[in-house]
Amino acid sequence: MNSKAGDYYAPGLEGIVAGETALSTIEEGLRYRGYPITELAEKTSFEEVAYLLLYGELPKRKELDSFIGRIALSRRLPEPLIELLRALPRWTAPMDALRTAVSVLAHFDQDATDASMEANLRKAERLLGQIPLVVAAHYRISKGLPWIMPRPDLSHAAGFLYTIHGSEPSPEAARALDVSLILYAEHEFNASTFTARVIASTLSDLHSAVVGAIGALKGPLHGGANEVIMDFLQQLGTPEQAVDLLRQALARKERIMGFGHRVYKTGDLRAGILSTWARLLAEKTGQSRWEQLASLVERVMAEEKNLYPNLDWPAGRLYHYLGLEKTLYTPIFVMARVAGWCAHVMEQLANNRLIRPRARYIGPARRAVLPLAERDAT
Question: What residue numbers bound the domain in which 284 lies?
Fold first, then answer.
């Protein structure tokens, strides 16, 4: 590479094409392997979407039943991991516990060092089943509650809510969570996915790539944004107070989480889809006041800053209506995105080239090294 490689520098790699993928595109609206996200959210389940991402096509009934069965069989955790979760301090953040747990799970996976496509598919399916169980087990253990084994007769989304609350969710609640998982499952070369692909490009293992992706997703500029949505709405008070408080925050140049997106300049299609479910659950749970306040914030943000909601904006509200604590919101993101991460790892390995970009040097010009005695004399 020539010395002028730095001339192509773009902060945050914005607008830089860093690779090729057949998994998703944001052109003409988000599509997973060619299917519009609007149709997937309306006509499929998360299990179908996970299969699509991992295997390339939407499953037929027999394929889907077999896939769901394999995931169900993987919903078990090794006893040493349960003991570790019990030993963690009660204040351990769920994302930190999950990051550690995925690393531990690699030690108990006999395919851990096998990088073949077949082995990686098996590992991906196991992680799809294990990660929700880790999230629920850590949550309940941290509360001093017994952890609950999932029911095999429930869907992926319904089963997770059951292991959190100990009761079967309503069909509306289960479907609302299911749609959110579909919307969070994949999103091209986002920060966590790119992290996973960088790790995979070194020929490291799939679990390592997922651990790295979890670390990237933990950041509030990526996955953690949905955790602060309800805090923000609660701080705004009544609708009468909200406009003034919001404008004051904007005048102080405070960042309003849940608005704006690096690649969506006129609004995130996913936000519109999930907002419908947020409004439905708000009505069902008697919390429509938050939706009224959210609509007011959306109007002010569009008028004052020309910024529109991203997926985190309705997700933070929807998860609140589902009775979930905010520290669970980003781990739920992991439950969904692990399907995309694993698919990207396998795609990277199928046509691998080590990802090693250049940097623009901005340090001192060339200097001579003085002996220590001369440096002491100056």
Answer: 226-321
Q: Which of 261, 268, 320, 344 is catalytic?
A: 261
Same domain, 139 and 175: yes
Please indicate whether residue 268 is annotated as part of the active site.
Answer: no
Could you give the number of structural domains in the chain?
2
Do 211 and 79 fall within a single domain?
Answer: yes
CA distances to 234, 246, 315 from 231, rounded to whole Å, are 5, 13, 13
80-106 pLDDT per residue, tens: 999 999 999 989 999 999 999 999 999
Is 344 annotated in the active site?
Answer: no
Longest dimension (CA), the chain: 80
Is residue 132 domain-shared with residue 164, that is, in the same domain? Answer: yes
Q: What is the pTM of this model?
A: 0.93
- Indicate the pairing of strand 31-32 with strand 24-25: antiparallel
Can you read off the two tokens belonging to residue 281? Answer: 């659950």
Across the strands, what pairs with 259?
309
Q: Is residue 150 part of a domain?
A: yes
Strand partners, 31: 25, 36
